[in-house]
Amino acid sequence: MSATTAAAGTWVRRFHPAPEAPVRLMCLPHSGGSASYFHPLSRALSPALDVVTVQYPGRGDRRGEPFVTDVREMADRLFAELQGWDDHRPLALFGHSLGATVGFELALRLEAAGTAPLTLFASSRRAPSTHREGEYANIEDDDWVLSTVKELGGTPQELLVDEQLLRMNLPVLRADYRAAQGYRYRPGPALACPVVAMIGQTDSKVSLQEAAAWRTHTTAETTFHWFPGGHFYLNTQVPEVASLLRTHLLPPAAG
User: Fold this and answer.
1) Which of 26, 66, 96, 199 is most buried, with most CB under 10 Å away?
2) CA distances to 37, 55, 108, 211, 216 from 238, in Å
3) In Å, how far are 34, 116, 233 from 106, measured between CA atoms?
4) Residue 224 CA: distances (Å) to CA of 101, 121, 209, 211, 215
5) Nearest to 49 by CA among 11, 103, 89
6) What does the pLDDT look like over 123-142, one tens digit per residue?
7) DSSP letter, residue 219
8) Nearest in space to 89 (alpha carbons), one of 52, 124, 125
9) What's the pLDDT at 152?
């Protein structure tokens, strides 16, 4: 199976094909998010990078499939998906919020298999070894879930103005929150690839100390970038983020 075929299959979507791009970037969405969240970033990076975006089970065109409520299981299944690709183009990972934790676990599996990613971009996520006790204590409370989502600012406007539609998304949000709630870092070998931590300046979900702890998860370089905005700074910072990704992943002439 070719990478092009795989990227049109179950797990990933390719919005802007870039067959000549020297590097592939896999984007992993946040809690409640879908592959389409990265459509603007994919457009901004094409054709310099081949962007593929992950579609988790239980949402969008996969709404009929059972949710995956365990981060490690998600990483296992994504790793298995990648093993079917016969295109060995260099791969970088970009995970936003929960997606950064999934990306970290996927990177561990790739490195153990001898196919280390070029870089892990960890967006709006504290380091795996940090934990906030009781963060999801009210996960069964619908109103709490909805107010949390609204406060973070990542919900599409069409959902915010339609309470019924927003509540229909509750099972997706709760499933992803369960995955985040149940995740605990297991001490082991650090990554060998660089980590780029990307944080919104007013993000209440990631402190400076929690972001700095990404340094302990790689033997390579860790860099930090701060953007105007909160947890979903990417909504308004696509050009800046795209420029940063090109700088890290492409030779100067290719960027």
Assistant:
1) 96
2) 11, 20, 27, 21, 28
3) 18, 10, 24
4) 17, 10, 12, 8, 10
5) 89
6) 999 999 999 888 888 888 98
7) S
8) 52
9) 77
Helix (H, G, I), strand (E, B) or coil at 120: strand
Using CA atoms in the order 51, 212, 236, 158, what is the torsion angle rounded to 10 degrees? 80
Locate tokens 């070719």: which residue? 2
Number of other residues whose CB lies within 10 A of the CB of residue 216: 13
* 225 in catalytic set: no
Cα–Cα distance list, 83 to 2, 86, 89, 115 (Å)? 11, 8, 13, 10
Of the residues 97, 123, 124, 217, which is catalytic? Answer: 97
CA–CA gap between residue 133 and residue 189 (Å, rounded): 25
Q: Whats the size of the chain, residue-wise?
A: 255
> Which tens digit of pLDDT belongs to each residue from 146-193?
888 878 776 665 555 567 777 788 899 999 999 999 999 999 999 999
Give the separation between CA 93 and CA 162, rounded to whole angstroms. 33
Ordered strands of the 195-200 beta sheet: 12-13, 50-54, 24-28, 91-96, 120-123, 195-200, 222-227
The active-site residue, picked from 30, 96, 217, 231, is 231
Has 231 been annotated as catalytic? yes
| 24 bridge partner residues | 50, 91
Which amino acid is located at 105 in the chain?
A: E
Entry pTM: 0.92
